[in-house]
Design brief:
Order of helices and strands: EEEHEHEHEHHEHEHEHEH
Radius of gyration: 19 Å
Structural class: alpha/beta
Number of strands: 10
Shape: globular
Helix content: 25-40%
Largest sheet: 8 strands, mixed
Strand content: 15-25%
Number of helices: 9
């Protein structure tokens, strides 16, 4: 499904460094004249496609005079990718930097005023990308993924051993060309088998929001889960300085606890930063608390880029 052009957004296509084709939407800054304007590159949560709420944030930013770029990540939605439904954080970081390169050349984009916005898993991706890319001038993350290692250490040893054997088996099968194993993103009963986001609320939100979209699928490769346990964006946090940095957390977040978010925020020094705390769960910033989360991000970006 390709979105038609409109005064607000235009479908775009660009290539990553290895030639993978990524597809998305460019939201044009809604401001008078044709002077260059800041542009925000957005990154969605785990396995999310561009239609899953990203356009709502992009529209808010565009109406404030900021350009915005949203896109499907490799292997997902309308974008290309050798392996479908594979979430590789290191590759996502590299692709996000290629998206920044593309965004800098978009109509009316001011290459000196590029911002990154990321949510959940995407928050972790843009933290690491920003820390290693000085072209990004400002950063906003909400309910961010911070440490796969912390999640792994909370798993009982017996289950760790079982999963490690599963990962090894899948690597062998892939090397032998015998197929790629898949795992659900969510399950109605998270205790009934392995899945990525093991909460009932995750099932309810994904099935209520994402399953209505033809480009989202409730599965990723087993390797995606293995790679997630080795994803450590918190190790890169200090590298975002001296760029302005906003973090939006949720007090009732049962995926990424607010205590860890607070500690991560406190660890960043040498920059202008702000922590916004919402009294809600992990998913509310996308819907019932969207006005608060999007307004906080918009105002921060406007303050530091316009």
């Amino acid at each position: 499904m390709t979105a038609p052009s409109s005064p607000l957004r235009t479908p775009v296509t660009f290539c990553t460094d290895d030639g993978t084709v990524l597809r998305g939407w460019h939201y044009h800054p809604q401001s008078e004249g044709d002077a260059p304007a800041p542009i925000v590159v957005l990154h969605n949560g785990f396995s999310g496609v561009k239609e899953v709420h990203l356009e709502n944030y992009a529209r808010v930013f565009a109406e404030a005079g900021l350009g915005a770029l949203v896109f499907d990540h490799r292997g997902l939605g309308e974008s290309g990718g050798r392996v479908r439904q594979e979430v590789d954080p290191a590759q996502y970081v590299a692709d996000f930097k290629d998206a920044v390169t593309f965004a800098m050349a978009l109509p009316r984009a001011d290459a000196r005023r590029v911002a990154a916005w990321g949510s959940s898993y995407g928050g972790g991706v843009v933290i690491q990308a920003t820390a290693t890319d000085p072209r990004v001038a400002c950063l906003v993350v909400q309910v961010p993924f911070l440490s796969g290692g912390q999640i792994w250490r909370r798993i009982p040893p017996a289950q760790q051993a079982q999963m490690a054997g599963w990962f090894a088996q899948q690597r062998t099968l892939r090397a032998q060309g015998q197929g790629i194993g898949m795992v659900p993103v969510v399950l109605e009963d998270p205790t009934s088998g392995p899945c990525i986001m093991q909460t009932r609320r995750s099932w309810e939100w994904c099935m209520g929001s994402a399953r209505q979209l033809p480009n989202w699928r409730n599965e990723v490769t087993v390797r995606s889960l293995e790679l997630t346990f080795g994803f450590e964006p918190a190790a890169y946090l200090q590298g975002v300085a001296p760029r302005p940095f906003m973090m939006i957390g949720a007090e009732a977040d049962d995926l990424f606890p607010m205590e860890a978010t607070q500690q991560a925020f406190d660890s960043v020094s040498g920059t202008h930063k702000r922590l916004v705390t919402l009294d809600c769960d992990h998913y509310a910033p996308y819907d019932e608390r969207f006005a608060e989360s999007s307004t906080a991000a918009r105002d921060w970006l406007v303050e530091h880029l316009l």
